[in-house]
Amino acid sequence: MGKQHVSRQLAGRAKALAQSRRKRLVANARAAIARIKERKATIAGTFWDIGDHLLVLAAPDAAKALRYHDLYDLCWRALELSATTVDELIAIRKRLTRAEAIRLQTQRRAAAYLRLADATPADDTAVELLREGVAMPGGKRLPAKASIRAVEAAAKKFRQKRRAKRRRGRTTTPEERALARRLAAALHKAGVPAKVEVLATVPGKPSKLRIEISVDNLPALRRCLPSATAVRKR
C-alpha cells in the first residue's frame, strides 16, 4: 500500500509539472504572437511614415536647397531610393491612411492593391478590394485578402481588357486608310514631300487626316485632293 501511495503522489506531481510547463509554453507562445503582431504593425507603419517624410522632401525647392537637382536625385544619392520606389511610397501616403497601410501589411501589397483599384472600371478602393475581392474579366473572382501575385495578375487583366476595348472602339476603316494612301501617292508623284496619316476618333465618328506639308506646297495639295478623294467605282 505504501508503495502504491508513493507512486500515486509521484504521478500527481509529474502531471502537475506537465500542466505547469504547458501553461508556461502557452503563455510564452501567446506573448510571442502579440510581439510579432506589434512588430508587423511597426513594419507596415514604417513604409507609410517614409512616404510622409518624402512629401516633406517633395516640397517646392526643398531638394534644390540641399543642392540636389530634384526629389529623385536627392532620394537616389542620399537615400538609395529609386524613382519608382519614391513614387510608390508617396502614392501610398497620399491615398491610404496609416491604419489602412498597416492593414495591407507590406509596401508591395499596398502598391499592388492601389494599382488594382486604378485598373478596375468601378470606383474601388484598395481596402475595399482587400476586404471583398472583385470579379475579374473572364468570370473568375479574385478572393478577399488575395496573394500579392494574384492581385498583380488581376490588375494586369483589367488593364489588358481596357486597352483591347479602346482598340476596338477607335479603329480606322479600310476606305479611310486607302484614301490616305492615295493622297500620299498623289503628292509623292507630284514631287511634294508630305506625310499623310489617318487618325481614328471616337466610336461612330469618321476618322481625321493629318497632313504634314510645307506651306509653299499647299497649291500642289489642292491639285491632288480631287483625284485622291474621288469615289472609286467597283
Distance between the termini: 120 Å
Order of helices and strands: HHHHHHHEEHHEEH
Strand content: 5-15%
**Overall 3D form:** elongated
Kindly state the percentage of residues in helix.
Answer: 55-70%
What is the SS-derived class? mainly alpha
Strand order in space, largest sheet? 1-2
Number of domains: 2
| Rg, alpha carbons | 34 Å
Structural commentary:
This protein is mainly α. It folds into two domains: about 45-170, no CATH class; about 175-230, no CATH class. The chain is about 70% helix and about 5% strand. It contains ten helices and four strands. The strands form two sheets. A two-stranded antiparallel sheet has the order 1-2. A two-stranded antiparallel ribbon has the order 3-4. Helix 1 packs across helix 4. The protein is elongated, with a radius of gyration of 34 Å. It starts with a helix and ends in a 5-residue tail after the last helix.
